[in-house]
Design a protein that fits this description.
Layout lengths: L1 H17 L1 E8 L1 H10 L7 H10 L29 E8 L3 H14 L3 H17 L7
Antiparallel strand pairs: 1-2
């Protein structure tokens, strides 16, 4: 009986870690740094902290090394002369829609209107130019 329970636990654990979501973000230097700062704020809720811990070390922190590429979409309000980084995030159990939901929650709690506007702008860029299922 113990072996069966152990086998089931191993199987469930492997399924949990096997489900990784890969998505790509097209962000310029200032936007990538801004997203990093938003996901490292002191006032994040526990679920937001979990999401940040699943996104930051799985691709977002290495944004300076990400290649500069022509995005697959037209980025709103961005100069076309400067190429953004293509930041691939391969994260366990996090999708681009969950990232957007988290940013919306952070924006809603932000009392500084300038900061809230920056978060809204990031959300717009990610929603319009993010690749929900990207290949590295």
């Amino acid at each position: 009986m113990t072996r069966i329970v152990f086998a089931i636990a191993v199987l469930l654990c492997s399924l949990t870690f096997a489900h990784a979501s890969t998505f790509a973000l097209y962000l310029h230097d200032t936007e990538a740094a801004m997203l990093m700062a938003v996901l490292q704020r002191d006032d994040l809720t526990p679920p937001e902290n979990v999401l940040a811990s699943r996104v930051l070390p799985y691709g977002l922190q290495s944004w300076p090394d990400a290649p500069l590429v022509q995005p697959t979409c037209k980025q709103p309000f961005v100069k076309a002369t400067v190429l953004p980084h293509r930041i691939v995030v391969k994260s366990p159990n996090v999708s681009i829609s969950q990232l957007l939901t988290t940013l919306a929650g952070i924006q809603a709690r932000t009392t500084d209107q300038t900061e809230a506007g920056k978060i809204a702008f990031l959300s717009l860029l990610i929603a319009q130019c993010g690749e929900a299922s990207a290949k590295p």
